[in-house]
């Protein structure tokens, strides 16, 4: 997951490849609660691991359920319809699928519970559900603003005496989750037939289908008359199916369906695995909308393949009430259409993670679009000409879908980057969204930003470069370690480091599985950080670096680190030789006295005794050698910015580099 303050997406062009999407949020949280309310153990496969499921799992643990997690498989040992723990304070984050069904289940079971969430959760309505629960005889109090969480349930000791004779009436026009909540809670108390009547036009209907489908898997067959009246038969009792698989998330799929429709198809098709035409999720019908706009989509029971069809996309005018979440993706697709697109009947957008109609309109306007919004619709004029697009920093309102949707603006024909603020908000339902997107997206190498940090030994360039990379979410290349790792890999492969093995070592170097992560150097799965710093490793590195074809291979390897979303490269010839076109080159230095002191501290901390004077003499000798050698001498690139950090801290150096970087961005 990108936990950076922002993520700058370079202009993207093509896309192709396979994505395996994480589990459905709506299915995961329903299955978790149903398993918790059932007896025995339910093994849930492919469960989504995200903020929304984590709050549900934490609540179930607090309530005394058994939770055993192994990778994406979770075993839930349920309560068999009885409370084990009768008092708890439950944090629900911003998960509607957690707070609403749990409120209903705990309210009918009795006990004394408080449920609260993030500030936005306290602005998301729950009044219609509370009204229905109060009709039933449950004790529910608002501890903040009436109509919104936080809530206090029960608190009077004895379980509530429920009035089940009359139909329970619930409004369905603000959120379908209130009806879902009652449908999941009432089987717990169905000593007689329990009838629920929906007041007002039910929205987001397909989510009720998911609820009914999963209830059936847990032994509850609900009789229904249209969308108005639902009857839970007397004697209903939860029965665990034993094992259950969670489909991949169809709403998450919408970004990749759109990606396939928007990206140039040169790199092939986008294939989505884990969800397909047989999905029980309503958002699978996003496929129909994408086809209307011109996407070519093929599919099987649990896969989809998408490629660009009509281009520009076709504008649409669509009632999106059945796909409220995925419809946001259509709004961004509309920027690439041949006329104005209108998405209707989406009033619920205003009470979700943020006011999504306002958010989408505001942010699309930043990109240059003309957007009209009404109480329950949004109309988007396309950005027909490249010159109409603007580079923008997209505010994401702690809304995962705003962040995911706007990543698709990086495919703009103007070749402009897009900044996504607070990218970690995708953790609500898809923590690795950006990694997944970038793994199938392509762009011309020249679009991928590179920041070079060159400088002499002990100038702090490694520390600064690592920190800059971390702040930007960019890859990191420690070019100095390359020769050492190559030498190590050669010895591990049994290759003596000499001219007889030059070709073999060069081949090895070309695809060396080296990574720099978490301040460590990895060779395939091995942490070789310490191993490459020994005296012997240094000697071998020097021998390897004398082999011309290995040097050439290592240039290619260094170039291969230039990957999306960007690279910070540290070394001695990054700006001069390896990445001469880099977007920012910094030459970091410090006085010899200062560097000798730093190196001294470093060595002392490792228990190696030495004197500052001898270190300084070594440094000066090495500087002289490095800057006078004929191949890639150590010198600042002509267009490098010089930073002498003798008198400033690492943090200040990092901030300076970032400030220079910021100064070159178009946002
Ligand atoms: O029941 C569900 O799983 C959901 C129902 C929908 O909410 P509304 O019914 O409030 O539209 C949807 O937006 C939400 O992401 C998940
Ligand atoms: C509306 C959403 O979430 P929630 O389940 O919290 O309602 C969503 O995921 O888009």
Radius of gyration: 29 Å
Mean pLDDT: 96
The dominant shape is: elongated
Bound molecules: shikimate-3-phosphate, phosphoenolpyruvate
The CATH superfamily title of the largest domain: Enolpyruvate transferase domain
Describe the structure.
With 667 residues, this protein is α/β, with parallel strands linked by helices. β19, α9 (327-333) and β20 (341-344) form a beta-alpha-beta unit. The mean pLDDT is 96. It is built from 21 helices and 33 strands. The chain is elongated. Phosphoenolpyruvate (PEP) binds next to α3.
In short:
35% of the residues lie in helices and 20% in strands. The protein is an alpha/beta fold.
Keywords:
667 residues; alpha/beta; aromatic amino acid biosynthesis; 3 domains; single chain; binds shikimate-3-phosphate; transferase; four-stranded mixed β-sheet; Rossmann fold; UDP-n-acetylglucosamine1-carboxyvinyl-transferase, Chain; EC 2.5.1.19; EC 2.7.4.25; 33 strands
Compile the SSE list and pairings:
Elements: E1 6-9, E2 14-15, E3 17-20, H1 25-37, E4 41-45, H2 51-62, E5 66-70, E6 73-77, E7 87-91, H3 96-109, E8 112-116, H4 127-136, E9 140-142, E10 151-154, E11 168-171, H5 177-185, E12 194-199, H6 206-217, E13 223-225, E14 229-232, E15 243-245, H7 250-262, E16 270-273, H8 286-292, E17 296-300, E18 303-307, E19 317-319, H9 327-333, E20 341-344, H10 356-366, E21 371-373, E22 377-380, E23 392-394, H11 400-407, E24 418-421, H12 433-440, E25 441-442, E26 450-454, H13 461-472, E27 475-478, H14 479-492, H15 502-510, E28 514-517, E29 520-523, E30 526-527, H16 535-544, H17 548-559, E31 567-571, H18 574-578, E32 584-589, H19 592-605, H20 612-628, E33 641-644, H21 650-663
Parallel strand pairs: 3-16, 4-15, 7-8, 11-12, 19-20, 23-24, 26-31, 26-32, 27-31, 32-33
Antiparallel strand pairs: 1-24, 2-25, 4-6, 5-6, 8-10, 9-10, 12-14, 13-14, 16-18, 17-18, 20-22, 21-22, 28-29, 29-30
Helix pairs in contact: 1-2, 1-3, 1-6, 2-3, 3-4, 3-5, 4-5, 5-6, 9-11, 13-21, 14-16, 15-17, 19-20
